[in-house]
Amino acid sequence: MFKKRLKLDIKCLDGFVSKKELKDISPEIKKAHNFLVKRNGPGKDFLGWVDLPEEVGSSHIKAIESEARNINSNSDAVIVIGIGGSYLGARATIETLEPKKINKNIFFAGHNLSGDFISNLLTEIQDKDISVIVVSKSGTTTEPAIAFRIIENFLRKKYGSKKIKERIVCITDEKNGALKSIAKKRGYKSFVIPNNIGGRFSVLTPVGLLPIACAGINIKELIAGACAERKDSLSENLNKNISYKYAAIRNILYRKGKKIEILSSFDNSLHYFDEWWKQLFGESEGKGGQSIFPVSCDFSTDLHSMGQLIQEGERNIFETFLVAEKQNVRCIVPKNKENLDNLNYLAGKRVDYINRKAYEATRSAHFEGGVPNNTIWFEGKSAFCLGQLFYFFEKAAAVSGYLRGINPFDQPGVESYKNKMFKLLGKP
Ligand code: PA5
User: Fold this and answer.
1) Which of 303, 326, 370, 400 has the most CB atoms at less than 10 Å from its CB?
2) Would the CA dihedral through 247, 93, 135, 225 be positive or negative?
3) Terminal Cα distance for the chain, rounded
4) Which residues contact 190 (CB under 8 A, 6 or more apart)?
């Protein structure tokens, strides 16, 4: 099991971020740190995630594990309905750790309004035994609400109104919202999303934990990783807290005109982790006419689409590499007698070794091309390391937002499209 501490490698920031600049920003970091500790900064009512890893009790874990066992015992497909913070943490974990190969089929819905998508999903799983986990903190978000109405209808036809009660779990607010009323009226089981935790900070609540447990992933390990990272990020001192150091670096670079951050990884299974990261930073920081635009790249894939732009386009980019120290599975390049492809110089080498060289070459080429970059190293793809990474980035996003002088925990801008859409749809 991979359990080493996270590392931050800043070699490729030389000439872009100086020791003096890090020292100069330290008082601002201290102020942001105090907002978190004293709970008196903007959005102070949404700090439930800060101590959450320590506070998740064993009875809560047991209840979630028991519900996951119950779901798994009567279904061979689980549909997780939700959008944004109500689905990305679960999807990030499940897709990164790829348990599908050995475990259940987990499907996601409610994150778009494509009729094709939902019809195709129902066709794909029509012969399976299905359970549904529907997640919405507000309980009123249109996309998951529509998906739930359609899927609930489908289940009702398949199993009948009484039996679907065993197949639906709602995760929502303790008291308010349409989903809460539905759960109560129709007798569906439900789990609560704490009031003081916003969607994008909710992966360690039932929002993330129940789907992750259904996928056969050890949620205790996930929480243990977050606990370890919480301990590692208690200090206000940048030299002792790499989460704060990362937040400081981003803001130093931003103030120098580096307004786009690319999170780059050399492992396609991290794709949805990167999507989670994009939401975390995009919604937390994009306010008041300021923002670091968070983008993600899957390398090598995107080296052959975005690589040119990163290397030689406008110099307003910085990059954060997310790299695993070790891989889970060995894959070796075979020897070939004819060697028509001239690849025998790599015969016997692990593909991971070649991938590592691709990373080393890319970070150095981008650095030399004027793209400062840092690397966050985690030991390997495990629930523990993902727990570390979730907490690391949550804390960095909070502090980064405070450095910018905004409330990192709200998302008022998201309402604009919703209001226009409701008007167009004639919502009463
Ligand atoms: O981070 C957030 O708060 C948002 O991304 C929400 O999670 C997202 O909008 C979904 O909202 P809800 O859970 O209320 O359906």
Assistant:
1) 400
2) negative
3) 53
4) 169, 170, 171, 172, 180, 183
Q: What is the pLDDT of residue 1?
A: 78
Residue 262: strand pairing partners = 295, 319
Q: Which domains does the chain have, with CATH numbers?
A: 7-41+226-403 (3.40.50.10490), 52-217 (3.40.50.10490)
Which H or E element spans position 290? none
Q: For residue 99, what pLDDT is reported?
A: 59
Closest CA to 386 of 265, 293, 286, 303: 265
Closest residue CA from atom 2 of ligand 1: 199
Mean pLDDT by 10 residues, the chain (428 residues): 93 98 98 97 98 95 97 94 98 86 79 97 95 95 97 97 95 95 96 96 98 95 98 96 98 98 96 98 95 97 97 98 92 96 97 97 98 98 97 98 96 92 93
Please give all residues whose beta carbon lies within 6 A of any atom in ligand 1, as ranges.
Answer: 83-86, 136-138, 141, 144, 198-200, 283, 411
Give 401: exposed, middle or buried? Use CB within 10 Å, 0-12, 13-18, 19+.
buried
Q: What integer pLDDT is reported at residue 87 of this predicted model?
A: 97
pTM: 0.97
Q: How many alpha carbons lie under 13 Å from residue 402 in its C-beta half-sphere?
A: 28
Is residue 137 a contact partner of residue 193, using CB atoms and an 8 Å limit? yes
* Whether 283 is catalytic: yes
